[in-house]
TrEMBL record, chain A:
GO terms for molecular function: GDP-dissociation inhibitor activity; GTPase activator activity. It is found in: Cytoplasm, Cytosol. The chain crosses the membrane at residues 12-31, 259-282. This is RAE1/2 domain-containing protein. Residues 684-696 have a biased composition (Polar residues). Belongs to the Rab GDI family.
Automatic annotation (TrEMBL), chain B:
It catalyses: geranylgeranyl diphosphate + L-cysteinyl-[protein] = S-geranylgeranyl-L-cysteinyl-[protein] + diphosphate. Belongs to the protein prenyltransferase subunit alpha family. One of its GO terms (biological process) is prenylation. Residues 264-361 form the Rab geranylgeranyltransferase alpha subunit insert-domain domain. Catalyzes the transfer of a geranylgeranyl moiety from geranylgeranyl diphosphate to both cysteines of Rab proteins with the C-terminal sequence -XXCC, -XCXC and -CCXX, such as RAB1A, RAB3A, RAB5A and RAB7A. Catalyzes the transfer of a geranyl-geranyl moiety from geranyl-geranyl pyrophosphate to cysteines occuring in specific C-terminal amino acid sequences. GO terms for cellular component: Rab-protein geranylgeranyltransferase complex. Pfam families: LRR_9, PPTA, RabGGT_insert. One of its GO terms (molecular function) is Rab geranylgeranyltransferase activity. SUPFAM superfamilies: Outer arm dynein light chain 1 (SSF52075), Protein prenylyltransferase (SSF48439), Rab geranylgeranyltransferase alpha-subunit, insert domain (SSF49594). It is an enzyme of class 2 (transferase). This is Geranylgeranyl transferase type-2 subunit alpha. Residues 196-214 have a biased composition (Pro residues).
Amino acid sequence: MAAEDLPSEFDVVILGTGLAESVVAAAFSRVGQRVLHIDRRSYYAANWASFTFNSLLTWIQQHHEEPQPEELQDWSSLLEEGEELIYLSNSDSASIRNVQVFCFTSEEDEEEGAPSTKEDDRGAADGDAVKETPESQSADAKDKAKKQKAEEEEEEEEEEQASQTKGEELSAAQSQSEATRKKISYAQLVKEGRRFNIDLVSKLLYSRGSLVDLLIKSNVSRYAEFKNVTRILTYRHGNVQQVCTISLYTCLFTFEVTFYLFVCVCVCVYIPPFISLCMYISPHLSVSQVPCSRADVFASRQLSVVEKRKLMRFLTSCVEETDEQRAYKARPYLEFLYDQRLGENLQHFLFHSIAMATEDTTTEEGLASTRHFLRCLGRYGNTPFLFPVYGLGEIPQCFCRMCAVFGGIYCLRHSVNCLLVEKDTNRCKAVIDSRGQRISCRHFVVEDGFVAVDRKKRATPPRFLSRAVLITDSSILPSSSDQQVSMVTVPPVAAGCPTVRMVELCPSTMTCMAGTHLVHLTCQSVGSAFEDLSPLVTTMFRTTESPDRETSPSVLWCLYFNMADGSGLDVKGHDLPSNVFVCSGPDGGLSHEHAVRQAEWIFKQILPEEDFCPPAPNPEDIIYNGENASSTGEEEEEEEEEQNKQGEGGEEWKEEGKEEGEGVEEGEEGGDVLEEPSDGGVMFSSTNLTTTPAMH
Amino acid sequence: MHGRVKVKSTAQQEEEKRKEREKKLKIYVAARDACFSKRKEGVWDDGALQITQQLLSSNPDFGTLWNYRREILMHLETVKDEDEVQKIYEAELSFLESCLKVNPKSYGSWHHRGWVSTRLPRPDWARELGLCDRCLNLDDRNFHCWDYRRMVVKKSGVPVDRELAFTDRLIGSNFSNYSSWHYRSTLLPLLHPESPEPLPSPRRPPPRSSPPASPQNHSHRVCEAQLLKEYELVQNAFFTDPNDQSAWFYYRWLLGRAEREEMISCVLVSREEETVTVAFSRPVDPGGLMLLLDGQPQTVEWRSVHPRFKHSPVWICDLPPGTISDVTNEHNLTVHWMERHAHRDCALYTGRTESWCRDSATDQELFRSELSVEKTSVLQSELQSCKQLQELEPLNKWCLLTIILLMRALDPLGYEKETLAHFQTLREVDLMRSAYYSDLCSKFMIENTVLKMEYAEVRVFSISDKKLTTLCHLDQLLLVTHMNLSSNQLQRLPPQFSMLQCLEVLEAENNSIEDLEGVFHLPRLEEVLLKNNKISTLADLRPLASCPKLKRLDLRGNPVSGLEEVEAALTELLPSVVDLLL
C-alpha cells in the first residue's frame, strides 16, 4: 500500500513491531479499533526478530554502519492552532552495540575436488581461525578498528582465503589424526542460509506462562507450531582440591563408560587472562541433564536413590506452601535449600536449573519460580518449556497477522517522524509519518527505541544484555536422538560473574541447517558481550582457543552483541503526552511475561472495559464479505454429495485414511499445535497422565 | 473487516443436528440391512467388502460384520493370486489402522488385525511393531495393543533382548505402568536363567534320595547378576515414588516367585481308628492315590476331612476293620501318588498305637518360600535399602510391607518383635486394609508358632493373646494334640480346622467365636473350652456331635448358655459329654 493511500484517521497508531507492540495491535484490532501498525525497519518483530543467516549478515552490517543523522524536517506547516511538535528518534541503533563476528570454518566448500581434501579442509579451518582470532581480539580493543573490519567484509574474506593456504600448510600433520568430523564450510552456511532462523532474543515459552495462555485464549496459536524443549541441562564445576578433582574426573569417566549418559569432561588448556581467576575454581566442567520430571528422576544416573527420594519429596512439598516455607520467606533461597539438607547435587539442580535463582533470590521468589516450573511440567510433555518452530520471531508476527485479519493496516519501512500534541490537554492528536502525511489518532504506542533521548527519563543508566549466537557442528550433550532442544543454565563461574543461560536448538526446530546446532547464550552484561561470554564459549566448545577439546562441539561461526535490557527501562516515566504509551524492548528473562504484561497494561489503560484478546472465531464460523446465507446451504449440499460419494466408492475412503495417517506422522515430526490439553489434547494425554499427578 | 461470526439460534442448531442424526441413522440402517441380505445370499464380492467397510468405520465393534468380512476375504483368497491377496490384505490393514484411530480399544478391530496379519502372504512385522509402538506411546495401558503386540512378537520372533530393551524404554518413560514391568518379568528368566544348567530339568537334583529336600521350584528364577541389576532399577522407581505400587509388585516378584513343589508331606497311621491320613503340600484331588499295606494294594475310599472340600491337602481312608488293630503286629505302609510319581513310606511298629512319617517345616524352611532365599547377603542389603527408605518415609505402607516380607525371609523368629511393630504401624496408616494386615500378621504368627513347636519337638500348639483374626496352615498341624487359641480375636473355626485329626484338647476361651463348623469328625477330641465366646444357638454346636469322644465342654459366657432348657437339649445333642459347663 502506498503511503498516499493511507487513511488519515486511526484509533491507534503503533510504531514498532516488537512483541508487546504486536500484542497491543492484535488486542485493539480484535475489539474493532482501527489500527495502523508501522515499523521503520524492513522486517517484522524489531529486536525480537529471527533472521536467516544471510539477512543476519545484513543486520550485522547495518549495525556496523554509523547511523546517518537525518536532517530534521520542519513540519510546522502541518501544525494546527494550539499544537506543538515532538520529534521522534529516527533510529533505534542505541539498543544494539558491540557486534562482533568470528568465523571458525573455512570459507569455501572444498568437498567437490577430492574426498581426501576433507582433512585439509578441517585443518584449514583451524589454521584459518588461529590466524583470525588474535587479530579480532586486538581489534576488540579498538572499537573503530573492529567496525572497519566488519564493514569491509569482502576484503576480509579475501584475507581469509589467503590465510587458508597458510593454514593448510601449518596444520597438515596435526589434522591427519583428527579428521573424523566433517566440517561445514562458510560457503555452505551461506548457501543453506535460508535454513537458519536466528533469533535476536533467546527466550522460551513456559507451558503455563502468560504467553501460552494468551496464544490459546486469543486463538493466535493457530498461526504457529511449537516443539518441546526436550532437555534441561546444567553445567557444574568440580572442587577446588586436587584429590577431589581427580576423583570427580574418574567418577565422571565411569559414568561415561558404564552408562549411556554422556558427560562431557572439559579440560581447559587455554586460559584467557581475564578468566584465570575462575579457572581455579572450575578446572573440570561437565554438562549433565537436570532431572525435573518424575520420569527424569527415575532415569537419572547422577542421583543416588536417596537423593531421588529427597528430590521428589522436595518437589512435592513445593506445590503447596508450608509453614516452614513461610518462615523463610524473606531469607535467601539458598539458605532455605541448604537447611533442607538435600546435598550439594540436588541443591545445585534446584537452585540453578529449576528455580533459576541468583544469590539474592529470596525463598519466597525461589519457591514461586520452582512452583511455576513444576506447574508447567506435564502440560505439553516432560519439560516445562516450548519453543516455536521457525524461531521466536514468529510470535510477534502471529499477533500482527491476527491484527491484520481483523482490519489492522501494516506498513514496513515506514515511520513516524513527529507527534502533534495539543498543548492544552497534552494529548497527541495526530502523527506525521515519514512521508509527511498527517494521520490523526487517538492513541499512540511506540517502541522505546524511537523515543528521542531528550524525552526519556534518565534516572538509571540503561542495562544491557550480553548475547552470543553460535553455529556449532554437534550437540553439547550428545544422546540417542540428535533432535534435542536443550536449555542449559550455567551458574556463575566466579563471584560477580553473571549466570549464563544457554539454549541449544536442533535442525528440527527449523532454526538451523541439517548437521548444525544453533546455540544462544544470554546473560546480564558486565562488560561487552564478547568479554562476558567468550570465556564460556572457549570452555564448552572447541574453538581455536581450545582446539584440543575433541569431545566438544566445534564452533563454526559466532556472533556477539549487546542488547538493551527492556526490563531495565522505566517506560512509564517519559516526558510524553498522556495518550502516548511506550513499549520497552526484549528483557533478559527466560519468559515472555514482561512483554505480555506490558501489552495488557497498555490495553487496559486505553480500553479498561474491553476484553483483552478475546478468542478469535474459527475460520469456519466466519462468513466472508460478499457471501450470503445461501452459500452455507450450498456447502452443506456439497458435504452431502461428498458423503454419498464416499458411500459409493471404497477407494476414496482408503486414500483418505492413508492421508490422515501421514498427516499424523508429519505432525509428530514437525511441531505440535498448541491446544488446551484439558479437553482431549490426545497428543499429550499420555504425558499429562504420568507426570501431573506425581508432582501435585 | 474480513468477516463476521455466524450466529444461529440454538433451537435451529438442535433441529439441524437432529435431522443430521436421523439422516445418518437411515443410511446406517439401510447399509446394515443390505449387508445382512448379501451375507444371506452368500455374496462374497468387492461390493460387500466396501459396504462392510463403511459400516465398520463408523462402528468398529460390530462383530457380525467382521465375521462376514473374514468370510469374504477367505473366499477371495481362493480366487485371486498371491499378489492380489497380498494387496487386499494390505488394504485391510490400512483400513484397520483408520478404525483404530477412531477407537483404539475396539475388540473387533484388534482381533481382525490379528487375523489379517496371520493370513497375510508376506507379513510386514516391522510395520506392525511400529504400529504397536505408536499406540502404546499414546496410551501405554491399552491392553488390546499389548495382546496384539505379544502375538506379533511371537510370530515374528523378535529376539528377547530387543524386547527387554523395549521394556527398558517403556519403564523409562513411565514406571507406573505395570504392563511393562510384568512383560519384563516374563522376559528375564528367558534371557538370564538362573543357572547354566539346561532348562528342561529345572529342579535341583535332590541331595537326599527321598523325600525330595527342596520344596522350591526354581524354574522361573533369574540369575543373580541380573537380579542385582533389577534390584537397582526397581529401587530407583520406588525411591522416586514410593507410593507407586507397580514397582513394589515387581520388586516382590524379584524377591519371591518360588513355588512349593507338590508332594506328600505327611502320612499318619492310627491303630485305634484304623485310618491312614495323608497330607499334601497343597490341595489335591485323591484320584491316583494308592495305598500299599505290607506290600499289598488296598482298596480304600479316600475322604476329605470336611464334606466342603473337593480339593484338600488332607485325605483320610479307613482300613478294613481288623487289619492293623493288633498291637503286636508290625506294619509297613506305602502311599503312592501316581500323578507326581511320588511315594512315602510309614512303618507302624509293634506296641505303637500310631505312627507317622513327615518333613518338618523347619527343615524345609517352609514359611520362607514366599520370598525365596537368595543369598542371604543380597536379601540383607535389600533390607538395608528398604530401611533407608523407611527412614525417609516412615509411613509408607509398601515399604513397611516389603520390610516385613524381607525380615520373614531372613529370620522369621529373630525379627518377630520388629515385624509386629511394623504391622501395628501399617494398621494405623492404612486403615482401609487394617483387617488384611491383621490376617497377614495372624498368618505370620501362626507360622512362627509352628516353627517354635517344631524346634521344641512337641505336639502342643499354643498361640494365646496374639490378636489372631484368622487361622491358617492348619494342614501343618495334623499331629497336634493340644491347641491353645485363647484370648485372640477369632470369629470362627473354619472347615479347615477339621484337619487337626489328632486334636484332643481345644482351648479357645476369650475369642469371638460364633461358628464351630470346623470342629467336625475329630476322632480324638475330648475337651473343648469355649468360655466367653459368641456362640448363640444350639445349631451352632451341632458340628460337635460328630466328635465321638467329646467329654468336657465349657460354654460359660456364651449367649447360648442363657437359652431355656439348653442343658437338656445339649445332653440330647451331645450324649458323650459328661462335664458340661454353662
